[in-house]
Amino acid sequence: MPVVSGSSGRDVAISLAPLMGMQYIELESRRFPDGEGYVRVPSDAIDAVRSEPVVLVSNTYPDSGIVNTVLLLEAIAEVRRGNLSNLKGEEPQNMEDVGSGVYLAIPYYGYSRQDKRFSKGEAVSARVIADILARGCDGIAILDLHEPAVLKDMEVPIEFVSSMPEIAELLQSEVSPDFVLSPDKGAISRATEVAGLIGCDFSYLEKTRIDAHTIEHTPKDLDVGGKVVAIVDDMISTGGTICRASDALRRQGATEVHAACTHGLFTGGAILRLANHVDGVHSTDSLPNPRAVVSAAPALARGLKRLMS
Ligand code: R5P
Fold it and tell me: Is the dihedral of CA 129, 50, 41, 18 positive or negative?
């Protein structure tokens, strides 16, 4: 029974396989000179991929990750259907259909932020991508999706899983926060969970996004004087949200400020920007990044086990 991946999601897949009691197999995934993707289930992986169940670990980020995931799901489905016909005449050309049993684990679900039609005429991208992926698998586990409500009533079961327990454990052992802050209302449930697991105080800020690079927080009195604070969010992109929240905390006397997130996108110099505002940045490895200190695999394993049971 294999956990497979192309190049995207490879490290998470390698960590996930032993947690699932499965074997890791790398599928072929490369690029043509013009940048288009190519995938293949290698000959020596055919038997394993036809055994049940198969878990594909793949990110839908960046855009090429979406194409790669769709192609990998189709390659796996064809192998499981027994459709091996090929122009080179490699044998066997056909085998028995082994049926369903393909699960997709998505460490970072790209396009998750367009989860509503904010203006008329927009595509709800989070839903569009999920509907395409659902056609190629029997269930999906998604790690810390920005807004799970966008994927309600899908054609396949979806398990929404969270790395907050592992993030809480890391923060407790490395940072010992006295206070956890959610930088906006959207992260309240995640940050509350972390505060509850650590057993420390919690509060949140109200954020208004002016544009992709600018946010504003409504001023709020926070009881953080002399305290070590951890700001917890689902993702850090430009770092703007964390930097502004950290400034508010420092103004109110916080002695140390750390940032923790599941998805470390760290776009456009975010790591440098954050270094000027916080004492530490802690992320999972849902995406490869220089602050990945928490494994995304345990949370995905929890969801996959529920999907398969
Ligand atoms: C938005 O609501 C998310 O939870 C994050 O707060 C946001 O995406 C972070 O973006 P940035 O790092 O660019 O401020």
Answer: positive
Q: Is 220 a catalytic residue?
A: no
CA–centroid distance, 20 to ligand 1, in Å, is 31
Q: Is the pLDDT of residue 266 over 90?
A: yes
Residue-averaged pLDDT of the chain: 96
Mean local confidence (pLDDT), 146-163: 96
* pLDDT over 90 (residue 52): no
For a ligand 1 pocket test, name from 190, 241, 261, 263 the mutation site with the most ligand atoms within 8 angstroms of its C-beta.
241
Domain borders along the chain are 2-162+297-308, 164-285
Res 213: pLDDT: 82
Question: Which stretches within 236-296 are classed as H helix?
Answer: 240-251, 270-275
The rounded Å distance from CA 241 to ligand 1 centre is: 6
| Peptide bond just before 33 cis, omega within 30 deg | no
2-162+297-308 with 164-285: one CATH topology?
yes
Q: Which of 277, 191, 282, 171 lies closest to 236 in space, CA to CA?
A: 282
| Fold that domain 164-285 belongs to in CATH | Rossmann fold (3.40.50)
- Give dist(CA 235, CA 303) in Å, integer: 20
3-state class of 280 per DSSP? strand
| Ligand 1 atom nearest to 241, measured from its CA | 14
Whether the per-residue pLDDT at 214 is higher than 90: the answer is no
Q: Which fold has domain 2-162+297-308?
A: Rossmann fold (3.40.50)
